[in-house]
């Protein structure tokens, strides 16, 4: 355990309070004798202005909500730690990337982008993936998304993008959705968005969980080592469990069945000790190679193909503690891409440059003033000293008469630190040119990488893209906008454009398509890591289940890290053939197949017609969502009746140990797209 982590825990500990057994007080510590009635002029008289306890209680209540984030409002977070695998001294002087023996505390917030704080979590959207490293050199914030590119190339267009994707102002509809006219009108008339739209229409925009979601820094940054040598760098988070997604019908149903699905999954996983893990990877390009690629390194709508610029895995992050209070931590945490440490610097990416201004401005209005860094969740673990005083929410009590630089009354302290003392120095880059409102010609190619993404998809993923465009544009009322989008994406793929044009009733284009034939296998989720660990399996059972075989199978699944949960017609305990019992966690009324990764149909001699009807509906939905299905005993007969046996990912007819092994393999595969549904 590192010194840094101990200090952060100790720092937070002073703010943690347990009220159990304590007497009620005001916020000033005054013990309160009555908390049921306000102070009145007589029992039926008016409340008196002098009732300071009532005024304090109501004032606090009236101000318990701070303005929600304009974007990324719906979020959830967790604490953890990061450890570098080997020293990165050759590439950067950043202290937290030097010593494999040091565990740096982190706080990570995941979020949707478009919806309000009360919206559902499985909507089609990009996801925020923001990490705060509490390092000995100060806080470093890696503020990214689960998609490596963005819709726009210049930050001045960000308000336009968000205005377009947010609910339309004349009726405040739809919430947390891009399937409406203004968003697609923006896309058609701002064609730099083509690449990002391909990602948001893909499976990446409906992740299975935060634990199975990649993260990207999006922008091109710089690593700078102690000798002053710089390299361009992009940051990646690679989930240890692989990158997996929902299917669209499933995502929509989860939004109604459990709008808290993603946060519940993260919270429960940490509580169960199944700590989410992500490896940090970096892509690096030497400065002398800046112009050797067919894309501009500073263009935020472009990625660096991993086959051309490999990702170097440098460390691992583990999330191992849930927050104690969502408001105090998750809502009040303040991220900023400008929170850097020595050895990490910026580039002239015009979207990044705008973010460096915007984030501080946002925190000022959300958190009430310039002292948001003093909130416990934002406070660095290292001491901070400067001449900033006063302001809303000031916690620090500075002693002394001096609050300016330079000075002689305090021996010119606090004084700037030289680089060898850890002082931050900006990378010296030659900059010259006319003051212009313009964009480099090297940013003009909007379709090549969108085509690269399409070329890299599996056949199932391509069909999902066509279906997603068909759904989204099927919700658009303007025929003109529909036609513009079809014409736009005919520049990416004729197959794609023709596919969704036909679905929405637009004349399909007869010519077009990008000439690019290159693909990047790293972009397809078909090539991700596949693991059964932490997968939830709904086990449908009733009284009279075969105790010996079912017990053996459930034990084998649990040894692989799979989490079986018993589903039946009522809560309580089920009795097996030998008298052993299974505790029921869900009923058909309180759960749904969309909340599980796989289904195991066991049945039982007590199962009647109603049970069979409910179980059949459960199984049919899981089957149409391409999920693994296993069945033994009565369950096998249910599958036979629904003509599911023999289909890919449907496991029946084995001895218990063989069944468990085959079912585990099917669960690890996540989906079975070649199934006849």
Automatic annotation (TrEMBL):
Root EC class: oxidoreductase
Record GO terms (molecular function): catalase activity; heme binding; metal ion binding
Cofactor(s), by name: heme
Active-site residue list: 72, 145
Record-annotated Catalase core domain positions: 25-413
Swiss-Prot/TrEMBL keywords: Heme, Hydrogen peroxide, Iron, Metal-binding, Oxidoreductase, Peroxidase
Protein origin, superkingdom: Bacteria
Protein name: Catalase
Source species of the chain: Metabacillus mangrovi
């Amino acid at each position: 355990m590192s010194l840094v982590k101990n200090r952060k825990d100790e720092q937070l500990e002073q703010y943690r309070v347990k009220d159990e057994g304590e007497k009620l007080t005001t916020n000033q510590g005054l013990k309160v004798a009555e908390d049921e009635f306000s102070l009145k002029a007589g029992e039926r008289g008016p409340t008196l202005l002098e009732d300071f306890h009532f005024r304090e209680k109501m004032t606090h209540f009236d101000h318990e909500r701070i303005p929600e984030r304009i974007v990324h409002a719906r979020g959830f977070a967790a604490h953890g730690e990061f450890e570098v695998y080997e020293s990165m001294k050759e590439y950067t002087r950043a202290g937290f990337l030097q010593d494999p023996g040091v565990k740096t505390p982190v706080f990570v917030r995941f979020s949707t982008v478009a919806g309000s704080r009360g919206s559902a979590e499985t909507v089609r959207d990009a996801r925020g993936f923001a990490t705060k490293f509490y390092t000995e050199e100060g806080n470093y914030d890696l503020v990214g998304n689960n998609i490596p590119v963005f819709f726009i190339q210049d930050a001045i267009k960000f308000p336009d993008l968000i205005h377009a994707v947010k609910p339309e102002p004349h009726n405040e509809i739809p919430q947390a959705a891009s399937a409406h006219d203004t968003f697609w009108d923006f896309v058609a008339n701002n064609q730099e968005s083509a690449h990002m739209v391909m990602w948001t229409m893909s499976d990446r925009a409906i992740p299975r969980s935060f634990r199975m979601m990649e993260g990207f820094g999006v922008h091109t940054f710089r690593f700078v080592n102690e000798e002053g040598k710089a390299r361009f760098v992009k940051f990646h988070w690679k989930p240890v469990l692989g990158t997996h997604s929902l299917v669209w019908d499933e995502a929509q149903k989860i939004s109604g069945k459990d709008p808290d699905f993603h946060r519940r999954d993260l919270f429960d996983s940490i509580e169960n000790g199944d700590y989410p893990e992500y490896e940090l990877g970096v892509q690096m390009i030497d400065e002398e190679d800046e112009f050797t690629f067919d894309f501009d390194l500073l263009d935020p709508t472009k990625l660096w193909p991993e086959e051309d610029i490999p990702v170097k895995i440098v460390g691992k992050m583990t999330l191992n503690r849930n927050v104690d209070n969502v408001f105090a931590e998750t809502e009040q945490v303040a991220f900023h891409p400008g929170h850097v440490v020595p050895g990490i610097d910026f580039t002239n990416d015009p979207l990044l440059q705008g973010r460096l201004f915007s984030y501080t401005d946002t925190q000022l209005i959300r958190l009430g003033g310039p002292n948001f860094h003093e909130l416990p969740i934002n406070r660095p673990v290292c001491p901070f000293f400067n001449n900033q005083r006063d302001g809303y929410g000031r916690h620090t009590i500075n002693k002394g008469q001096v609050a300016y630089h330079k000075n002689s009354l305090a021996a010119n302290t606090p004084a700037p630190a030289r680089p060898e003392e850890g002082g931050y120095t900006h990378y010296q880059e030659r900059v010259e040119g006319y003051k212009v409102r313009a964009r480099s010609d090297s940013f003009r190619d909007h379709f090549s990488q969108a085509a690269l993404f399409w070329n890299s998809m599996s056949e199932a993923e391509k069909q999902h893209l066509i279906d997603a465009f068909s759904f989204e544009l099927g919700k658009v009322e303007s025929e003109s906008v529909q036609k513009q989008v079809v014409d736009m994406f005919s520049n990416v793929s004729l197959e794609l454009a023709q596919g969704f044009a036909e679905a929405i009733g637009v004349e399909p284009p007869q010519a077009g398509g990008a000439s690019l034939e290159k693909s990047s296998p790293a972009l397809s989720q078909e090539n991700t890591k596949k693991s059964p660990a932490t997968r939830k399996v709904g086990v449908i059972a009733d009284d009279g289940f075969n105790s010996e075989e079912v017990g053996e199978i459930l034990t084998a699944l649990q040894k692989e890290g799979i989490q079986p949960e018993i589903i039946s017609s009522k809560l309580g305990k089920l009795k097996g053939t030998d008298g052993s019992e299974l505790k029921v966690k869900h009923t058909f009324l309180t759960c749904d197949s969309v909340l599980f990764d796989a289904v195991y149909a066991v049945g039982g001699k007590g199962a009647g017609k109603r049970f069979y009807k409910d179980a059949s509906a459960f199984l049919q939905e899981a089957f149409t969502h391409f999920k693994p299905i296993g069945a033994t005993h009565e369950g096998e007969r249910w599958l036979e009746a629904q003509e599911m046996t023999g289909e890919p990912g449907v496991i029946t007819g084995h001895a218990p140990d063989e069944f468990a092994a085959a079912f585990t393999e099917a669960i690890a595969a996540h989906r079975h797209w070649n199934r006849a549904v």
